[in-house]
């Protein structure tokens, strides 16, 4: 029997009908709030705005991994990637926070357990 140990949760989601997706400051605040809700440690935040009326791509580098987003304001869509490790980290809380901040609805979601398998 092979025993695996759960190292973390990798949650991938698409949010529809979201708002503020062309506002870099709003996106940064939402990402920072999501990290706080997830009980993780922010190391750095990097964002790129694609210009007036266009989307934002960003990543929050965490001691526990990362949270990233790419937005399409013209479609009201945000693609979110939340990967957190550690017993205290809460990926679900980060997603709930992002949904609230962006007023979005999850239309696609995948949860991936990141496992440590013993060496063979």
Structural class, please? Answer: alpha+beta
Question: Strands of the biggest beta sheet: in what spatial order?
Answer: 2-3-4-5-1-6
Content of β-strand:
over 45%
Overall pLDDT score = 93
Assign an overall shape: elongated
Radius of gyration: 15 Å
Cα-to-Cα separation, first versus last residue: 12 Å
CATH architecture: 4-Layer Sandwich
SSE order, one letter for each helix or strand: EHEEEEHE
**Count of all domains:** 1
Structure description:
The protein has 120 residues and is of the alpha+beta class. It has one domain: 4-Layer Sandwich (S-adenosylmethionine decarboxylase), CATH 3.60.90.10. The protein has two helices and six strands. The chain has helices spanning 24-37, 91-102; strands spanning 5-16, 42-49, 56-62, 65-72, 77-85, 105-116. A six-stranded antiparallel sheet has the order 2-3-4-5-1-6, with helices on one face. A hairpin with a 6-residue loop joins strand 2 (42-49) and strand 3 (56-62). Helix 1 (24-37) runs antiparallel to helix 2. The longest helix is centred in the first third of the chain and has 14 residues, at 24-37. The chain is elongated. 31% of the residues are buried.
